[in-house]
Amino acid sequence: MNIIEFFEKNGMITGFLIIALIMLVAEQISVRLIQKKIPGSAIAITLGLALAYYGGAVTGGEKGIADIQFFSGFKLVGGSMFRDFCIVSTALGVSFPVMIQAGKAGVISLALGLFLSFVVGVLIGLGFGYRDAESLATIGAGTLTFIVGPVTGTALGANSDVIALSVATGVVKAITVTIATPLIAKKIQLDNPHSAMVFGGLMGTTSGVAAGLAATDQKLVPYGALTATFYTGLGCLLCPSAFYLLLKLFI
Amino acid sequence: MLIYGLGLLAFSYLAGQLFGDFLGELIGVHANVGGVGFAMLLLVILHNYFHKKNLIKSNFEEGIIFWSNMYIPVIVAMSASQNALLAFNNGLLPVVAGVGIVVLGFALVPVISQLKNA
């Protein structure tokens, strides 16, 4: 009997067990070593990222630790289906009046978040010596999320190096949001549903927003997710079309 | 019944995601537009409706609450299956752009949040 194959066959259940152990370790670190200065969930998520880096370094694959056979269940448990299913389930605690009241700021932050990300990406692309509109638009799109980057790059026919760069930019963004949000939440008054909706619209990266808010205050998750869920789709709409044409005017 | 709650959650998820995919097709992008958002709205509306009709009995809600409690573990699994290596092995541009936009975003959160009084 091949023991690794046994765990791979029972991948999802193995995943549950490993995650439970990660949570346990993180909680102990939080309580015993640092007197709860950083919440256990934030430590667990960071440990997850460290595992992802390790997995990538060992296998050279794209799915972090999930590319190691023993951890293959992470592909399913950590995939977008489970993530979105859990986000939807958190909506049960949502307050409708608050959501509607925050709606206007949410829409403004969404529009501003899309536009600003693109502009920042383009400017940094210029700084690094890219001069053609296709490459710049792709890098700008990658600054939205790691999905918008390749969608835009493929649509505009950017070369594959630039597309890889745009994906990397989106991943850095997601990871930065994940790690930094719980640390800075108090300073930017990210402690109520209203600012969580604004936050979701400005950042837009669903993985980052979902993980960052989870580590900050789980009650805020549905509000942030509500605006962030429109971000990638609208980004895929705007970047290869309106934003690209706008950029063409300057180049 | 617990499974009815889970069924309602599954229905809301599928209907919302389907609508998000459909909306994406409609505006010509191959991406989901707002699927999670529509699913959340549907879940809240249907839950309220069933509640008013007194159809929610015994442990109906536990089928939903279990999943909202599973949220953080799932997010941990998600972080562990990110392409983290890519983030560090592509030179400086992704780091500058990725961190830069997040810093800017953080700075804007309190500014835009003020708009509630407008």
Which regions of chain A have little confidence, pLDDT < 50, spanning 5+ residues?
none
What do the pLDDT scores of chain B average to?
89
For the CA atoms, what is the radius of gyration of chain A? Answer: 19 Å
Task: Tell me the β content of chain A.
Answer: under 5%
Run of helices and strands of chain A: HHHHHHHHHHHHH
Instruction: Give the radius of gyration of chain B.
Output: 20 Å
Overall body shape of chain A: globular
- Portion in strands of chain B: under 5%
What kind of assembly state do the chains in view correspond to?
heterodimer
Give a count of the beta strands of chain B, DSSP E runs of length 2 or more: 0
User: Biggest β-sheet of chain B: count, sense, barrel?
Assistant: none
Compute the number of helices of chain A: 13
N/C terminus separation of chain B: 45 Å
Number of strands of chain A: 0
Question: Helix count of chain B?
Answer: 6
Query: Which runs of chain B of at least 5 residues are low in confidence (pLDDT < 50)?
Result: none
Level of helix content of chain B? over 70%
Structural class of the helix and strand makeup of chain B?
A: mainly alpha
Please tell me about this protein's structure.
The complex is a heterodimer of chains A (251) and B (118). Chain A has 251 residues and is mostly helical. Helix content of chain A is 76%, strand content 0%. Chain A is built from 13 helices and no strands. The longest helix of chain A is centred in the C-terminal third of the chain and has 30 residues, at 221-250. Chain A is globular and about 60 Å long. The N and C termini of chain A lie far apart (63 Å). The mean pLDDT of chain A is 92. Chain B has 118 residues and is mainly alpha-helical. Chain B has six helices and no strands. The mean pLDDT of chain B is 89. The interface between A and B is large, with 110 and 76 residues.
